[in-house]
Amino acid sequence: MPDTELNERIDAWIDENWETIVSEIETLVNIPSQEDLEHAAPGAPFGPGPRAALDAGLDLCRRLGMQAENHEGYVGTADYPGADDTKKICQIAHLDTVPCGPGWTQDPHQMTRRDGYLIGRGTLDDKGPFVVGLYAMRYWHEQGVSFPYTMRMILGSNEETSLKDVEYYLEHFDQPTFLFTPDAEFPVCYGEKGIYQGVFTSGPIVNGKIAHWRAGEAFNAIPTDASVTIRADRAALPAKDGITLSDAADGLVLIAAKGRGGHASQPAGTVNAIGMLVDYLLENELVTAAERRFLELQKTLIDDYTGAGVGIATSDDLFGELTVIGGMAWIEDGRIHQSVDSRYPTTFSRAQFEEALGAAAARFDAAYATDNDTEPFYIDPSGEEIQRLIRVYNEVTGEDRKPFTIGGGTYAREFKNAAAFGPEMPWREDPAWVGPMHGDDEGVSEDLLKSALKIYILAIKELMEITY
What number is the average pLDDT over the span 281-304? Predict the structure, then answer.
């Protein structure tokens, strides 16, 4: 049964500390922290932005009384030691972010508050949840509670690209006793689809109509905005909803598309701006025959996120249906390239992807190559950790939800005993001006973060009561 007195104390503590928590989130959001390998250096392997965010995160940990260390700029650790320091109940959150497209209505690195929401890159993914998770640990430290195991926050700085932060951590530290990451959805996720990525490449384009094309910001994000520069007469081009035409130079036209972006793991309801450009170019016969063949391949990929168009549709009882998106398109070395990002169930494999996507490429005189592959991950949902986490969630919210699996990839899959645990509640409807993670105007409800903070405080107590 819920402890009414404890719940009241936690609620009062959250209210007392909330403005400070928001201020700490703002400090981190205002630090641009996208990967920048061109400016990587010793101690900053992912560039100056991720290093600056890592430094700021560790500074916060130290101010909260934690034993905090920077490990060569790859990853940070911050501990409240327990009676048995060999066993650790960990959280892991990341301070790097995806790039920001041109569709923001504000500076993405100047956090704003509006009608109970925090808006800025990282407010939801994952700087806001990092601060909330950290303060959940701080609550128990302030109460003077002595736990049997160490509380550790692992500060990631390379989650959005290569996960070399976790690679470093696992090379230098033992596996956590149990770990959760506040970088997904509630109530609790015990499994994650596989993540497969690759690239379609056209044959050589000679005397093409497309002069420049680099659209999209990341393989794992559906772009809201995309543009392409072509050789054409602007006056002869028709208007179309979502498409903007402008002169680029003599004989060149910039065609820009405005769609609705989102995360690659949740393509339903999105409108891929690259697909909008492909449709416009094809409908108006603005490309050469060789370019058309590749654009038809792009259309086949982008128009059906189930993967049926490129021969990879599948599903299983654990994860449901496979999804696939095209997040980036670009021209390099006289060829057009289109990225592929698929979230797949246990019924598919890298070999099957390569066979099917290779065959799809061949139909359009193109080539295909794998970029990377991570197999599906899951732990037993009837295990004590998952059962305690789901109980805490339902007791705090008054709901009756069940553990689930997702298509996104979180840090949890990199560890042996781990789960993704909030803070998103996708069934709650946000205003239209609040963007999703990886999207323009990314934002998060303050009420949602407050709920997550309470859930995390109580979850830590529950996990500490397990005998390991």
Answer: 98
Burial class (CB in 10 A: 0-12, 13-18, 19+), 69: middle
Tokens 């690259």, residue located = 274
Last residue of a domain, one of 334, 349, 374: 374
pLDDT score, position 409:
78
Give the pLDDT confidence of 163-191 residue by residue, as tens digits: 999 999 999 999 999 999 999 999 999 99
What does the pLDDT read at residue 408?
76
Residues contacting residue 288 through CB under 8 Å, at least 6 positions apart: 205, 207, 208, 209
Are 147 and 83 a contacting pair, CB within 8 Å? yes
**What is the number of structural domains in the chain?**
2
* Pairing status of strand 178-181 against strand 84-94: parallel
CA nearest neighbour of 444 among 416, 459, 425, 427: 425
Q: Are residues 250 and 277 in the same domain?
A: yes
What is the residue whose two structure tokens read 């899959």? 413
Residue entry with tokens 């689809």: 193
Tokens of 57: 């995160």
What is the domain range of residue 313? 195-374
Q: Which residue is listed with tokens 């704003």? A: 112
CATH number at residue 338: 3.30.70.360
C-alpha distance from residue 386 to each of 174, 179, 222, 296, 389 (Å)? 21, 11, 31, 45, 5
3-state helix, strand, coil in the chain (%, to 5): 30, 30, 40
Q: Please check whether residue 277 is in contact with residue 215, taking contact to mean a CB–CB distance below 8 angstroms.
A: yes
pTM check: above 0.85: no
Where helices occur in 326-445 by DSSP H, the ranges are 350-363, 384-397
Determine the pLDDT at residue 217.
87
When pLDDT is cut at 50, 70 and 90, the band that residue 407 belongs to is confident
| pLDDT at residue 69 greater than cutoff 80 | yes
- Residues linked to residue 192 through DSSP beta bridges, in sequence order: 377, 406
CA atoms of 158 and 264, how far apart (whole Å): 18
Cα distances (angstroms) measured from residue 308 to each of 91, 312, 341, 371, 373: 38, 6, 14, 21, 20
